[in-house]
Specification:
Blueprint (H helix, E strand, L loop, with lengths): L2 H4 L10 H8 L14 H21 L2 H10 L9 H12 L2 E5 L5 H9 L2 E5 L16 H8 L6 H21 L5 H24 L2 E4 L2 E4 L2 H4 L2 H9 L4 E4 L2 H6 L10 E5 L2 H16 L15 H10 L3
Parallel strand pairs: 1-2, 3-6, 5-6
Antiparallel strand pairs: 3-4
């Protein structure tokens, strides 16, 4: 371990020398060095967890609540990924995989295909509980990972990872570089929107009405209630045509959300997404957010060269 990281405890988002140095060395997959967490880091987790727990009970889908119980997430301190994985892996084969930062799209989807979930190990500062533009370990572990204990949802994530390989396979036959790039951008945009409106911000029908399964909702104290209760939110039964063409709202509460009937329904939607990809229906999706950055584009194009 670099000396500077060893002498600088704390894994606070934006102020974590251990993670920043790993990123500077080009290391994407890293270890969670648990002793580096500071008292403030554990306090941030404690406050986030205890504040949102009552809203989970009210607004989260039952599979998520079962997952929280199965993982035995601690309320008082940042979880150790090794402990989380010991309970998670026997249930669905998924594991949380520590990363140093942003994972380019193809690599991210390929991790899902292998039942590995890229997991940020830093945590937001105590004075920024409500919003952070980048993910942290509370979003990834408390928001995402409990859903990975549910077999039908885990299968859907792995199936989604297959779609990235299908995209690469289809692009391999296109000789014109400009056209190949244009299609890849459109497909990444469609897949990102699908993921955003389902895995991140999805609603579903539950025993007591509409509830949340998207991690962006389940890790946000404010937006979780807003998504279910606010009259300002439009909630519609999910439609593939709409899903892949709807621009995303990155920096404020989502004004438009989609509702699935079940995780079997969601799995069928991913199957349809891949069929549409093969039929060319994702080659010309509507412009707008997200903008596809160079690392995401290159991750798909480079995968086609391997």
């Amino acid at each position: 371990m670099p000396q500077s990281a060893a002498l600088a405890p704390g894994l606070t988002t934006g102020h974590a020398p251990f993670v920043e140095e790993a990123r500077d060395r080009g290391e994407l997959y890293i270890q969670q060095v648990y002793d580096l967490y500071s008292a403030d880091n554990h306090e941030a987790w404690r406050q986030l967890y205890r504040r949102i727990q009552p809203r989970w009970e009210r607004y989260a889908n039952p599979h998520f609540l079962n997952g929280v119980e199965a993982l035995h997430l601690r309320e008082d301190r940042v979880p150790q990924l090794a402990e989380v994985n010991r309970r998670l892996q026997p249930l669905t084969g998924f594991q949380a995989k520590a990363v140093s930062g942003y994972v380019p799209s193809f690599l991210f989807f390929d991790c899902l295909r292998r039942r590995e979930f890229p997991t940020t190990i830093t945590i937001r500062p105590v004075d920024r509980m409500d919003y952070l533009p980048e993910p942290d370990i509370f979003h990834d572990v408390a928001g995402h990972v409990p859903m990975h204990t549910e077999p039908a949802f885990a299968d859907t994530l792995a199936r989604f990872g297959d779609c990235a390989h299908t995209a690469v396979e289809m692009m391999s036959g296109i000789r014109d570089e400009q056209e190949r790039t244009r299609r890849v951008v459109s497909i990444i945009k469609a897949m990102s929107r699908f993921f955003w409106f389902t895995v991140e911000f999805g609603l579903m029908r539950g025993p007591k009405g509409i509830c949340a399964y998207g991690s962006g909702l389940l890790s946000s104290y404010g937006e979780l209630e807003h998504a279910i209760e606010s009259p300002e939110v439009q909630r519609y039964p999910v439609q593939m045509e709409w899903l892949i063409n709807q621009g995303m709202e990155i920096d404020h509460y989502q004004p438009l959300l989609f509702v699935v009937e079940s995780f079997d329904h969601l799995f069928d939607l991913v199957d349809r997404l891949e069929r549409w990809m093969r039929e060319g229906k994702l080659n010309n999706v509507a412009p707008g957010a997200p903008e596809i950055n160079e690392s995401d584009l290159r991750s798909f194009l480079d995968a086609g060269l391997n």
